[in-house]
Write a structure and sequence with these properties.
By secondary structure, this protein is mainly α. It has a single domain, classed as MetI-like fold, CATH 1.10.3720. It is built from 13 helices and no strands. The longest helix is centred in the first third of the chain and has 37 residues. The chain is flat, with a radius of gyration of 25 Å. The two termini are 46 Å apart.
Length: 316
Amino acid sequence: MSAAHSWLGQLVARLRGWYAASRSAFVGGAIILVLVIMTATVSLYSPYKPEAMDFMAPLSGPTGAHLLGTDNFGRDILTRVLYGYQISLAVALGSVGFGLAAGTTLGILAGYFGGSVDNIIMRPMDVLMAFPAIVLVVALTGFVGREISVMVLAVAVVYVPIFARVMRGSTLEVVNELYVEGARARGASHLRLMLRHILPNAIAPVLIQASILMGIAILLESALSFIGLGTQPPDPSLGLMLSEGRSFMQQAPWMVMVPGLAISITVLGFNLLGNGLQDLLNPASRSAAANRSDDLGQRDEPVERASKVAQRTKEG
């Protein structure tokens, strides 16, 4: 029992430390963690399948049997939202993962070597960034196909130039630091310099950007499904549920409200996580927070000393 209490106390202390370090990152991470757990285990606790129809309860409001109501086919909306999260998160993770890997590689090469290598890599990236993201994704999915893998690659193509530009800018700030020059003077190879000295110190802005782009990827997937270029019926998708619920907004407003709120909560969680990571990984933000805490401590010291003097006087 004491070991369990000790473990629980350490966990609570660590959670308090994370919350004190960045409330935004803590809240955003908690939202995403809860959604991931609920989505990954939905088949264990949900009594319904996403495509199961209850012909006795079409357009039913929230009840004990269907907590968030049913759609026009009698399908449980809560179950379909949770299964829809699986598709949205898969597209977000896949697209951000591919875009992060390719964009980081291109960005560090462009920033490290510069010159003609920089021009060869970044000029095509500038061309890609000239197109609006939704237009480019719609064009790619319209020409290639509507499978989830195609959607992942389409969104990843949009994200590669974004990650490349962020990584290039961060690399340009790090490449001339003294520790990089010292490693170069000791004879370190280009690959070692990029992987051991530049990448770990330049990756923080890219990670912050990745968290924010996760939320945008969910919006893009929902938009594609809403206009019919993403997930196809009867597979559940948050954007597809919004599209299907447009015709029943007066009879069953929950058909639109529930998936819309689900999208908003997910995007909010990723945005909070990104803002919190910026506070945690940005040295300027950390030093500012430390200075604020020092200032508060200095302001509190005279009050504490005065209270101690008053206490001693009272005791005397």
